Every structure is written in structure tokens, then in C-alpha cells.
Amino acid sequence: MTPGVWLVRSQGEVLGLRVARALAGEVVRPWEAEGGARELFARCFSARRQWVLVGTAGIAVRFLDGLMQDKHRDAAVVVLDEGAHFAIALLCGHEGGANRLAYEVANAVGAVPVVTTATEAARPLALGIGCRQGVGADAIEACVLLALGERRLSEVREVATVDAKAREPGLLEFCARHALPLRVFSNASLAARPWVSQPSAWVEQTLGLPGVCEPCALLTSPRGSLLTRKTTLHGVAVAVAEDRWEVA
């Protein structure tokens, strides 16, 4: 079904349209219909499998009160603030696909995806991946396994890359194969964190960046550090970051 993009206020119009285009969804403007917004949402909620609410989490919680029945049947709900800072998987994150939807929304507008389900959030590792054009999923997986060493793919929370590689078929296939969300960073975001252990002349020439995999891995784990620095194999570069908690 077509995802619904619910605008709490008309000020969210431009942002909502951008999200709707990325998701092939439909913008819903409650002020164009009769009755209150909350009552309208209650009538519309079960008609779609996915909702993106552009507004506050508090409003979303109030709208959802009394509508939730079962995590296997309820619609997935993602909340995106009007500043496009965070895309929060609020309802049916794992079973309903809100976690995946949060990444899609975040990638579309440059927001941070927020996932709190234990199945995904408790995994400590993140992969930063860069690759040559046309590299296949098997080559990417081989480099990932080399970079992970004794650690397991089941410990990986997400994959990150630069926006120029967001539609690379081999990378998308690798992520789909292992049910890993792909997070996309802009050149500007990576340039703001320019440290790399092994600068690449080829990446500098093609993307204007000293490297991709290490900045991507570090940006996904702001409280972590690199477990594995840039590892290369067959046109693929992988870095692994690990979240670390310090107990006072």
C-alpha cells in the first residue's frame, strides 16, 4: 500500500513532499478535511501499512492512543521532526518495518534514524563501506568478513556509505541478503569528519574526499571507535566501528 505522510502543520509541506517522493507515498493534509485531526487520523490509520508523521513524537503518541492492537497487524509509524533532525521508528519497528522505514526517511532528508528495538539497537558494530562501481555483493561480503575477523555479521547493526554509492546494486544486495539497513551520508557530512588512516587518491579524485569507509563507520557510532581500520579487497573498502560504554 502507498505510505502516508501525515503533516501536523502546513509548515511541514516542503519536507513532507520530499519524503513522499522518496517513498512513492502520499501527503495527507488534515486541515483540508472536515473534523479534528486526531479523529481523522483514527479513521485513516488502518487504511495504510506505513505512516510517516511530520511533527512531534508527543502528538504522534496522542494520535495513536487507543488505535494500537497488535504489533503484527498495526501500521508502522515513523515520526520525523519538522527540522529533519531525527526519523524515529515509533510503532512496529521490527515486525511492521518501521525500523527500515526510519532509515529510508532519514536517507531522504539527511536525518538520523532512531531505532530502539533490542533486536537491532543492541548490536554493537557498524560497517562503513566504499566500493568501486559494479562490485558485486559476494565481493563486498568477502571484504566485510575479512574486516570483521573473529566478530560475526550477526553483531552488525547497520551499514553506512556515501550518497554517491546509495544505489550501488552490489551494496544493496549485500544489505538485503543480511537484513541490514543502509545509512547514507552526504559528502559534506563526511568532509566534516575527514580523518582517515589511509587516504585514497582515487576517492579524492572521484568524490573529493580522502576516504569513505572510516568516516562512515565513525559517524554511525559517535560514542564508539574503530575496531578495524580500512580493509580493502577486490575494489571494496570496509571499516568496522564498535560502540563502547564506559562505566564511571
What would your notes on this structure say?
This protein is an alpha/beta fold and 248 residues long. The protein has 2 domains: 4-119, Rossmann fold (3-Layer(aba) Sandwich); 123-243, Nucleotidyltransferase, domain 5. 34% of the residues lie in helices and 25% in strands. The protein is built from 10 helices and 11 strands. The chain has a 6-stranded mixed sheet with strand order 2-1-3-4-5-6, covered by helices on one side. A 5-stranded mixed sheet has the order 9-8-7-11-10. Strand 7 (125-131), helix 6 (137-148) and strand 8 form a beta-alpha-beta unit. The radius of gyration is 19 Å and the shape is elongated.
Compose a concise summary of this entry.
With 248 residues, this protein is an alpha/beta fold.
Written as H for each helix and E for each strand, in order along the chain, the element string is: EHEHEHEEHEHEHEHEHHHEE
Distance between the termini: 48 Å
Global structural class = alpha/beta
What is the strand tally? Answer: 11
CATH class call of the largest domain: Alpha Beta
Low-confidence stretches: none
Overall residue-averaged pLDDT value: 93
CATH architecture of the largest domain: 2-Layer Sandwich
Report the sheet-strand fraction: 25-35%
- Please tally the helical runs, counting DSSP H or I stretches of 4 or more residues: 10
Sheet bearing the most strands, described? 6 strands, mixed
Oligomerization category of the chains in this entry? single chain
Radius of gyration: 19 Å
Helical content stands at 25-40%
Shape: elongated
CATH topology grouping of the largest domain? Nucleotidyltransferase, domain 5
CATH superfamily caption of the largest domain: CobE/GbiG C-terminal domain
> Which sequence of strands runs across the widest sheet?
2-1-3-4-5-6
Q: Tell me the number of structural domains.
A: 2
